[in-house]
Structure formats: structure tokens, C-alpha cells
Recover the amino acids of this structure.
């Protein structure tokens, strides 16, 4: 089984959803830079204060901040830990920094068209406490408006408004798309069609991971 996995794909392609399922089924640790940054913003830490404006507009947080954050997280884990990297790396500079610290054995790219991405993100609801993710139609919570896992009130992420989503897609194409070629050259890229039910996609994800 692959143990160091990068999840690639545009905003809303299902990285968080599939990553969570891999953690539940196989005990991976998921390192999501988006979740870490949102927590830092909520707590008002120095990192959160610096990151807030970038995130609200859909821009990337500067590489040096992200690389330092992830270096520390990775160092705190045992070497044998199975890790899912969700939302990191997002630039070639971040990928180079990650490669110096960890040997990546799979880069899993979820391919989803823009219209579907916009529909998924504008109707996504997230739990601010445990980071669980729902969709109003495709993956609704059992009780409308509340997290199934921890019962907190669900939120619309501030960067999930349509205008910001469009900017995130532009930023993705400019800065993150080159990573597909980057991992292809390294010979560890697998691309999966990311449209279909969550379980159908998870079946394909498992095949790539096992
Ligand atoms: P981040 O939190 O990483 O956001 P993202 O990459 O834009 O990805 P998302 O969380 O929006 O989507 P996802 O692919 O995880 O999809 P999900 O599973 O939730 O980053 C946010 C911001 O932080 C960035 O804009 C940037 O500012 C900053 N940042 C983070 N990392 C950074 C880095 N490394 N460098 C610099 N800046 C960084 O699914 C989406 C929705 O679709 C959900 O509602 C879900 O229920 C639904 N869904 C999932 N699968 C399906 C399916 N198969 N069918 C139908 N619906 C589905």
C-alpha cells in the first residue's frame, strides 16, 4: 500500500472528501493546509492574521509560510506514518520542499469540470469544529444545518461564494496545474475522473492506493 500520498485537483474536486474516507478506512493521517490555515484564522494566531486576506480573496498564502508550517507538522510525525497531503503542495516550490523531506509514492489527481466544481463549492457546507464536509444535495447532513459528527452549526466557507470560487479556479490553473506534469515526470501520477458518486470515486481511489 502507498503510504505518502499527495491529493491533487482543483478546488471542490473532492480532495477533502476522499482523503477523509482514506483516513477512516486505512488510518492515514491527513495534513490539510486549508484546515490548518482556517484554524489559525479562527484562533487569531500570527499565521492566521497573515493568511486571512489571501484566503478571503482566493489567492495562495505565500510559499515561505506554508513550507515552514508543513515542515513542522511532518517532523512531528513518526517516519512510518501513512500521510495524505490535502491541498499541499500547490506550487512547484512547495513540491520541491516536500520532496526534500518525504518520498511521495502517489500523486492522485482528481479531474472535475469547472461547472461541477462551482456547483459543489457554492452548495458545500462545512463544520467549523471538526472540518467535516457536506453538500446540500449530494451529501447532506442527517439534520439540516448541523454536523452529523459533532452537532456544531454548519457554515458556508467565506471563500465558497461564486466570485471567489472563480478566482480560486484561475489561481489553480496558474500555480497548481503545473504539478500534474511535475509528478507525471516523477512517474507517480494517477489521474482519476472525479465525477460520479462519492463511493464510485472512492472505489477508484482505493485501487490506486492499494
Ligand atoms: P483548501 O481548503 O485547500 O481548498 P481547496 O483546495 O480550494 O479545496 P477545497 O477544500 O475547496 O475542495 P476539496 O477538493 O477538498 O473538495 P471537498 O472534498 O471539500 O484551501 C483554501 C485556501 O487556503 C486557498 O484558497 C489558499 O488561500 C489557502 N491555502 C491552502 N493550502 C495552501 C497552500 N498549500 N499554499 C498556499 N495557500 C494555501 O468537496 C467539495 C464539495 O463537493 C463538498 O460539498 C462535497 O460534499 C462535494 N463532493 C465531494 N465529492 C463529490 C462527488 N463525487 N459528487 C458530488 N459532490 C461531491
Amino acid at each position: 500500500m502507498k503510504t505518502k500520498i499527495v491529493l491533487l485537483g482543483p478546488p471542490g474536486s473532492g480532495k477533502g472528501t476522499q482523503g477523509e474516507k482514506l483516513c477512516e478506512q486505512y488510518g492515514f493521517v491527513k495534513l490539510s493546509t486549508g484546515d490548518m490555515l482556517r484554524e489559525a484564522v479562527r484562533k487569531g494566531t500570527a499565521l492566521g492574521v497573515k493568511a486571512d486576506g489571501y484566503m478571503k480573496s482566493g489567492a495562495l498564502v505565500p510559499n515561505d509560510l506554508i513550507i515552514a508550517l508543513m515542515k513542522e507538522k511532518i517532523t512531528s510525525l513518526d517516519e512510518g506514518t501513512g500521510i495524505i497531503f490535502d491541498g499541499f503542495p500547490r506550487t512547484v516550490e512547495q513540491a520541491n520542499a516536500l520532496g526534500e523531506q518525504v518520498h511521495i509514492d502517489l500523486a492522485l489527481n482528481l479531474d472535475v469540470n469547472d461547472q461541477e466544481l462551482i456547483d459543489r463549492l457554492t452548495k458545500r457546507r462545512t463544520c467549523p469544529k471538526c472540518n467535516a464536509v457536506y453538500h446540500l444535495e449530494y451529501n447532506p447532513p442527517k439534520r439540516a444545518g448541523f454536523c452529523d459528527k459533532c452537532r456544531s452549526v454548519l457554515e458556508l466557507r467565506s471563500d465558497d461564494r461564486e466570485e471567489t470560487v472563480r478566482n480560486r479556479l484561475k489561481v489553480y490553473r496558474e500555480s497548481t496545474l503545473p504539478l500534474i506534469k511535475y509528478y507525471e515526470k516523477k512517474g507517480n501520477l494517477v489521474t482519476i475522473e472525479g465525477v460520479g458518486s462519492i463511493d464510485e470515486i472512492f472505489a477508484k481511489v482505493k485501487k490506486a492506493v492499494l
About this structure: The pocket of BIS(adenosine)-5'-pentaphosphate is lined by residues 9, 11-17, 33-34, 37, 54-55, 58-61, 66, 87-88, 90, 94, 120-121, 124, 133-135, 138-139, 159, 168, 196-198, 201 (CB under 6 Å).
